[in-house]
Amino acid sequence: MTAPDSPCCAPSFPDASRPAATPVEPSGPGNPSLHTVEQVAVESCTFDMGDHHGDGHPGDGETPIHPVTLSAFHIDATSVTNADFSTFVEATGYLTESERQGFSAVFHLAFEGSDDDILGTAQGAPWWYGVRGADWRHPGGPGSDLAGRDHHPVVQVSWDDAQAYCDWAGRALPSEAQWECAARAGGKGARYPWGDDLPARRTGQDWPCNIFQGSFPGENTLEDGFLTTAPVRSFEPNAWGLWQMVGNVWEWCRDWFDPRYYAASPSHDPQGPDSGPGRIMRGGSYLCHDSYCNRYRNAARTANTPDSASGNMGFRTVSL
Hints:
alpha+beta; 3-stranded antiparallel beta sheet; 4 helices
């Protein structure tokens, strides 16, 4: 896994060797019966992409700021949920890479299982466990399940898994530019979907997003009400009606990662570089914390290899 200096994004485990993704037969472009997530229409627009505040990690390549013009598109109002992903799996028999591999990455405070299920910890990030039996149905390990989580975002899905869902549903993963435009919702260079500042510390749904409170990584004080994922329609949507564009779960984009790409990016409908060490992820997750990983920002970007999965990775889709 390739995540530049990103402790809230699961790193790889040295002995991991994931099998190739199973191809899924497409079921027809844009069939609304296959993908039930509400979408929001985004008209053709131009925005200034990149970090306007100097907040970015040097290796992430959030600069230079550059104007981008996008053609019109539609984007999911929420992350794809467990219920939506279950429909896909039931229709196709698809097995995710974590299921076929037999393990995945789980944050230590979210682990549910026996000590024997822990295969090891990640080098340099011991708060990440490699857990036998962790997958989308068991996001915290074999002792966890999806009871009461139909409306939570699906996690433990790789880029390849998300792409397989898109192929089936006749959708696509958003380009990085589409994602950032949607997160900004017309805001001119704002740091977050709601503005430039994180409001004074509050409790529960008065928080603007689901991130880590307390002292990372050992103590989460749960001021926002959630240790891990929140239901996809928690907190407040942005100005365009899009829920949880930052926090909750990282969302896969279709672009390859290159920290130098912004300097050469096309001005119209950029699709990212032709290759790279990983695929872009956006939005941060419930593990982001001011002291360590402040990537719950509109401009923040990181990456991971397409076969990587963890308990804080999800996705949303787009269509024309």
